[in-house]
């Protein structure tokens, strides 16, 4: 029947591009899976399950299936053991890199995140360079994490981050303002 979604399809709420995108990957778990594929180098069910986010195995299996159906990720059997599945982003999935980077910057700026002000400033200054590195690693299937775990929050491109020891720029995250301060 025209206008009625077929089995397995969801009915679109509107033609708004934001709404359509959120229907595909807009829940917390899907975005975290995409993040882990994109910047942490994860590839297996077990790696996602033990990522530290606390996702239940049934929810993980469901989100992986939905992301595959949406064409955002793909699954392929591991070369050495066909029983194991490795997941990877598709071209459609890697196109989410700028969205994830902006979410990361927004979250670090406005929430109590485990990212330092120097880390945040570095992300903001090096957006294009970071996105280029994410795309390079995707093309080359390089699993090296692009970003550290946020408890570590070591700055990316550290050579460009030198500040004088006595005066450092501090950021008031709630207002997005920078202030000068002393010490650490």
What does this structure look like?
Helices cover 43% and strands 12% of the residues. A two-stranded antiparallel sheet has the order 1-2. A two-stranded antiparallel ribbon has the order 3-4. With 184 residues, the protein is an alpha+beta fold. Helix 6 packs antiparallel against helix 7. The protein has a single domain (17-157), classed as Orthogonal Bundle (Arc Repressor Mutant, subunit A). The protein has eight helices and four strands, in the order ααααββααααββ. The chain is globular, with a radius of gyration of 19 Å.
Main features:
184 residues, alpha+beta, Arc Repressor Mutant, subunit A, two-stranded antiparallel ribbon, 8 helices, 4 strands, 43% helix, globular, disordered N terminus
Distance between the termini: 65 Å
- Give the CA-based shape: globular
As residue ranges, the low-confidence spans are 1-8, 152-174, 177-184
The figure for the number of domains is: 1
Quick one: CATH class? Mainly Alpha
Largest sheet: 2 strands, antiparallel
CA radius of gyration is 19 Å
Structural class: alpha+beta
Stated plainly, the CATH topology is called: Arc Repressor Mutant, subunit A
What is the string of helix and strand elements? HHHHEEHHHHEE
* Percent range for β-strand residues: 5-15%
Q: Whole-number average pLDDT? A: 78
Task: Going across the biggest sheet, name each strand in turn.
Answer: 1-2
Share in helix: 40-55%
User: CATH homologous superfamily - what is it?
Assistant: Winged helix-like DNA-binding domain superfamily/Winged helix DNA-binding domain
Give the number of helices.
Answer: 8
Annotated CATH architecture? Orthogonal Bundle
Number of strands: 4
